[in-house]
Amino acid sequence: MGISTDSYAASVGTDGVFTGAITYQGYPLFMKETAMHKVYGGMPSNYRIETYACRGLQNGSWRSLQIVNELLFYKGRTDVLVYDGSDPMSVSEALGDETYRDAVAGAYKHLYYISMQDSAGVNQLFEYDSRLRMWCRHDQTQAMGFAQVDDDLLYIDTVSGAIVSIFGKGGEIEAPVVFEAQTGIIGYEQKDHKYISRINVRALVPANGSLSVYFRYDSVGEWRHGGTVTGAGLVRSTMLPVTPRRCDHFEMKLTGSGDVRVFSIAKVLEVGSDGRWTST
Asked: How far is 145 from 59, CA to CA, in rounded Å?
């Protein structure tokens, strides 16, 4: 009849099964693992299908399709990809060479949450900040599905069947997340025989959180505890002074739990003797 509700069928010449579909930028987008098919037009009489050979959607990860700030995120065969209408680009280099599958994702403002299974069969929940372009590994949550409700993001935990709130505004409040951050090698001595006598870590530790600092000297041996601060019922900025041992170089590791925010890490220098010494 030449109207928009006419039935329509088409065939495409690419190999493999369709792995998912979504409407993006006003156009239906049908995906395979190695291709995308975009349908243009407003009614069957002027439909046109464009085929793009690219990294498509991984089979079994159709629930990873999410739009975050006008960008389409999804799980490809080897990467987490972002698509803006041109060519898909990988954003998961920071996750290493591990391969994941069966991805389920949710979106909230500029954040992309994705739960997927690694090669050992263990599920991992990640958060990607599209504004800062940073990844955060949360825990081993296996999400059945995500849904944005009002000003919160909820997911169904596959193991317990509970509806969990990411931000604690509804559903079952998630337990404080355990975190760990490690620096690279930090040189110890400076010219003119100066050395680091103290390191000040300025951080905001909430009532249900904690922050610990560890050191490893000269790239060998065990991590040594430098100090810990815990929330005391008040949310306030806390200065944690820690004194590292004299050595050639050292590394720092910050561990803890809760919504801890580290604002600065400052090195305090003092003048040393003409020769460097190390303790054992």
From this structure: 17
